[in-house]
Amino acid sequence: MSGGQIAALLCAILLLLPGGCFLLVGINEADRYRSRQYTEWFDDYLVMLPVAVAILSVAGLLFWLAFRRRPVRGGPPAPPR
């Protein structure tokens, strides 16, 4: 692994904590307040879900960057077209 891949892996692992917390709290509170008359609370917690998706998407991208295989230099030539 290169240094950039290790850095991407560490950042992805660090982003799992806030993304997971936003997701769990958002789902829990939105489900709890959905049945009550507190519409302002419900709307506030629904904003947490897209934020969680955005954070976890960045973490997924960083995991992909960390574990993708780099092209081999001096590999076999490309087949003719």
Helix content: over 70%
Number of helices: 2
Please indicate the percent range of residues in DSSP E strands (runs of 2 or more). Answer: under 5%
Residue-averaged pLDDT: 81
Q: In total, how many beta strands? A: 0
Characterise the protein shown here.
There is one protein chain. With 81 residues, the protein is an all-alpha fold. It has one domain. It is built from two helices and no strands. Helix 1 packs antiparallel against helix 2 (39-67). It is elongated, with a radius of gyration of 20 Å. The protein starts with a helix and ends in a 14-residue tail after the last helix. The relative contact order is 0.19.
Keywords:
81 residues; mainly alpha; 2 helices
Question: What is the structure about, briefly put?
Answer:
With 81 residues, the chain is an all-alpha fold.
Reconstruct the topology from this structure.
Blueprint: H1 3-34, H2 39-67
Helix pairs in contact: 1-2
